[in-house]
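Model it.
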Amino acid sequence: MRTLHKILRIAGSVCVVLFSVAFGAQAKGFPDRALTLVVPFSTGGGHDFTARLLASKLNSYLGQQVIVVNKPGADGMIGAQYVSRAKPDGYTIMMSSPAETVIAPFLYKSMSYDPSKDLSPITLVSTTPIALVANPSFPPNTLPELVAYVKAHPGKVDYGMPGVGSAQQLAVDWIERSTGIKILAIPYKGAGPATIDVLGGQIPLASVGMAPVIPHWKAGKLKVLCIMNNKRLAWLPKVPTASETPGAGAVDVVQWMGLFAPAGTPAAIINKLNAAVEKVLHDPAVKKTLIAQGVEPVGSSVKNFSIFLTHERKKYAALVKASGISVK
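Modeled.
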């Protein structure tokens, strides 16, 4: 019996070694063809811009082309579902947001994928402030002025945002609950289309990531009423935060961009992708370009990104519950 146990232990050890060698060899030869980077939103938004910049630089470190494919719809869930069902070999990855990865499970009674089980985190790529922007013709110039304006014109003010239950909508909902106002939310398939409609005057306001707003704001075609951070940013010192408005002191929501792969992707490949992205994000030219567009590069370890996601799930579970927003 002891001999049998010994044989089984040896066999088990051999299997572990063989698996390790196989995964190591797989990572060593990875990639040997082009990768697909899925953006689950329309073109023109912060995720799209960041993904395309990242893709243009990754080939220097991976030795293969990275092709960006936009798959918008269902608040980012169409793209996320596509990636969750892709072969877990590292050749299909996703530039994701909080909406389809940490918020959706608290909004929908049933989903075609489970973000915590069907997607593997690679790295937190970047963060960007959520901005409440307005067409220059819209009277309010600050959040306190907007609160007063909405109270004086109840039911007559609406705003655009990229998807029901998105971080952008939950941030505005937090402001509404804190200040006693109500603004009609109009969902879009991304920040880009919402920003375009504010520029064109179709809607007066939008809650979007800062990235697609920066060039229009600098050109005077949009005005920023506030950002949703709880403190002003060094590179936006004159832009007030929502938390500076009486009653809204607790508001603190930041948009982020994270890289994910299908669950089951070998750890060695995940780590190789993580290392390549980190190198890109530490490139001074890339940093300068991202910050100029309102995007703060991060590049976290896989472990730290996983810890970050755990905290985000807890935060958004509370925000969704408080908002009362739900989707059947």
